[in-house]
Amino acid sequence: MMNEQFQQALSIIETLKRHGHEAYFVGGAVRDYLLQRPLGDIDIATSAHPQEVMSIFPKTVPVGIAHGTVMVIERGVSYEVTTFRKEGRYEDYRRPKEVTFVSSLYEDLQRRDFTMNAIAMNEHGDIIDPFGGTEALKQRMIETVGDAAERFNEDALRMMRALRFVSQLGFSLSTKTKQAIIQYGHLLQHIAVERIAVEFEKLLLGPFMSKAIDLLIETNLFCYLPELATKKRELAQLATYSIVPTHRTEAWARFAFVVHFHQKELKKWKLPNHFIRDVLICLKALEHIRSLSDWTVDTLYEYGPYIPHIERIRAACKHDEPHVHLLLKRWEALPIRNRKELAINGNDLLTLFERKAGPWLATMIENIERAVLHRKVENEKEKLKEWAVCNQRRENNC
């Protein structure tokens, strides 16, 4: 019996078939269904050409029409519907130079990367598996469709995808697949860093990340990743950590901390600047937060929003238990959790002291902030004014 997500998408397949076309569920959703894992997006392959798909369904978006893909929107849910196709000669070890629409499901499945992703399912729940994908799932094995060397020469990013699937599923690489990665890993140099970073991030977030990192080292694929060619020892250390990151910031910050990356190295991965900033904040914290006792009032205040990331990384690196819940409770109990919560602001102080703005103002606000944080004065405007005047006269006891 199909699960609910497939049931909801059945109307698309049934509609295509009523109009005389073949249509099947394909790809990762079928794989995850057979593995009894949560499903992501539901993809459909069909013999209908893109213009035919768009003429059949009232709500469509031509998201990748040159490659045969049309987004069909049914009851508020989007589904990618792609015409059966085969791909011609590849360019730059990544993109097919031309795509040819075909009428055969077999030819469409034949072009896919791994056997476990080359499984289709019809509207009755029957499995179509011409390349042994279901057996690969039973063996927990990742193997290419056809010749591994040919698949990786077509699209070198598939090598990173293979290790990403190891991290997500805990599968092993088939011998031929692993040997081909060892032989053709250098082709990864032709792939855009942004695409590599997407796969690497998924690898870092996988529950079997350690296994994937070990394979990254064993196949020497790490040598072709930005700034990692000399980091074999550090990567081996990363593979010893058992705590699985729950957020991309945590994943990248832990990785950067272990392999000693800073802003310069992170930029080589073409990560967004705002994201690099968040990672660098975590790295700064980890330089001096090495044990639970290092979480002081000041460090809790400074790094409050990043506590879950920092504490989980600290615990992983120390093979310790993370104390995220305890630390968040301590942070929430602080008199203030950021400067915006102060009951006084710069304009209040300018009026109080009848002075022009200058460096003194920033110093005064910081002093007030620390006094409130350490409970030397209550966070009430009049009391803060009184404290500010006393502090300015260096008469803290008045």
From TrEMBL:
Any one GO molecular-function label of the UniProt entry: CCA tRNA nucleotidyltransferase activity
EC number(s) given by UniProt: 2.7.7.72
InterPro entries per the UniProt record, alphabetical: Bact_CCA-adding_enz_type3_sf, CCA-adding_enz_C, CCA-adding_enz_firmicutes, NT_sf, PolA_pol_head_dom, PolyA_RNA-bd
Top-level enzyme category: transferase
GO BP terms in the entry: RNA repair; tRNA 3'-terminal CCA addition
Binding annotation for Mg(2+): 41, 43
Domain Poly A polymerase head residue range list: 23-142
Binding-site list for CTP: 28, 31, 112, 155, 158, 161, 164
Reaction it catalyzes: a tRNA with a 3' CCA end + 2 CTP + ATP = a tRNA with a 3' CCACCA end + 3 diphosphate; a tRNA precursor + 2 CTP + ATP = a tRNA with a 3' CCA end + 3 diphosphate
Keywords: ATP-binding, Magnesium, Metal-binding, Nucleotide-binding, Nucleotidyltransferase, RNA repair, RNA-binding, Transferase, tRNA processing
Domain of life: Bacteria
Subunit text: Homodimer.
Family note: Belongs to the tRNA nucleotidyltransferase/poly(A) polymerase family. Bacterial CCA-adding enzyme type 3 subfamily.
PANTHER family: CCA TRNA NUCLEOTIDYLTRANSFERASE 1, MITOCHONDRIAL (PTHR46173)
Protein name as annotated: CCA-adding enzyme
Organism: Anoxybacillus suryakundensis
